[in-house]
Design goal:
This protein is α/β, with parallel strands linked by helices. Helix content is 45%, strand content 9%. It has helices spanning 11-35, 51-58, 74-79, 84-91, 125-139, 157-168, 188-191, 196-202, 215-230, 259-268, 271-281, 287-310; strands spanning 66-68, 145-150, 173-179, 182-183, 186-187, 207-211, 236-241. The chain is globular and about 50 Å long. Residues 1-7 have low confidence and may be disordered.
């Protein structure tokens, strides 16, 4: 299976990539349904539509590599290897959730998987990965650190300061701007001055823009940036142009865009459909294999919801746990 550069991906990697994207889509679509019933506490921001971005990057990472996510972090968590059932319990606020049911959707983390956490602070991730990248460089672990920010987060001073710090310290870091066209309800076409690549260039970072609906394009760009960082070539930026299907948050009235706009992207540029069409047309995977992966993803999420609903919430005895860190 050829990517835009002619890179050949093994069949096993194609299956893994599609499974990862399907798991994210099934998870997000089901959370969308469950949130509407009123059974999920707190705020939820869904990643559906952007699956190719998280998957294209995480395919190159291991547990020694760290990522910092955003408030829209479910896709990054799943792609980084976080347990889906423990994630669902966390979103439901259950004791056996990934963070003991105390963090919820916007604060899921799993340091054993290199997932430093979703983040309710816009632009909160880039400074964190500078620390993770400095640690990897100092300890010579061979690891890299990646920060995901949205187009809104790209306007934050924390993000721009992190570009500078990563360059000055020559860190093994990658900054990924997932531009899904809207920062909450503000269109990025007029709220982002200049271009993301020119911003990176201003700090001496190499940058690349990529079609975020094309898994293979993201995979290639991610490989280039990650290999550069891992090989001592310093930090870089990847501008991923993508699209979110649901509102900024669950309950968003979405008055800032038309339903027709979303329908058009779903019909013509859906990343799962594009992947499926490409691999089946090339004869690398067949429709039956693809259908099986989709069915497995839905079954896994069904199980995750059932277990989360039945699980116990944190008790009074859990109130003071995980408050302080002991060194």
């Amino acid at each position: 299976m050829a990517t835009p550069s002619g890179l050949q991906l093994p069949r096993e990697d194609l299956l893994r990539a599609y499974r990862m994207m399907c798991d994210i889509r099934a998870f997000e679509d089901r959370v969308h349904e469950e949130f509407a019933t009123g059974t999920i506490p707190g705020f939820v921001h869904l990643y559906a539509g952007e699956e190719a971005s998280a998957t294209g990057f995480m395919m190159h990472l291991g547990n020694k590599d760290y990522i910092a996510s955003t408030h829209r972090g479910h896709g990054h968590c799943i792609a980084k290897g976080c347990d889906i059932k423990a994630m669902m319990k966390e979103i439901y606020g259950r004791r056996d959730g990934l963070c003991g049911g105390k963090g919820g959707s916007m604060h899921i983390a799993d340091l054993d998987k290199g997932m430093m956490g979703a983040n309710g602070i816009v632009g909160g991730g880039p400074p964190l990965i500078c620390g993770a990248a400095l640690s990897a460089k100092t300890l010579k672990t061979g690891g890299v650190a990646i920060a995901f920010v949205g187009d809104g987060g790209s306007n934050q001073g924390t993000t721009l300061e992190s570009y500078n710090l990563a360059k000055v310290w020559d860190l093994p870091a990658v900054f990924v701007v997932e531009d899904n066209r809207y920062a909450e309800s503000t269109a990025s076409v007029w709220s982002v001055g200049g271009s993301q690549l020119k911003r990176a260039e201003g700090f001496g970072l190499p940058g690349r823009k990529v079609d975020g609906q094309d898994f293979f394009a993201v995979y290639e760009a991610a490989q280039e940036a990650i290999e550069r960082a891992r090989g001592g070539g310093g930090p870089s930026l990847v501008h991923v142009e993508t699209y979110r299907y649901y509102g900024h948050f669950e309950g968003d009235a979405i008055t800032y865009r038309t339903p027709e706009e979303t329908d058009e992207v779903r019909a013509q540029r859906d990343c799962l459909n594009l992947f499926r069409e490409r691999v089946t047309a090339a004869g690398v995977l067949d429709a039956a294999q693809i259908d099986e992966i989709e069915a497995q993803a839905k079954a896994l999420v069904d199980e995750a919801v059932a277990e989360a609903v039945a699980a116990a919430p944190p008790g009074e005895q859990d109130l003071m746990t995980d408050v302080y860190v002991a060194y």
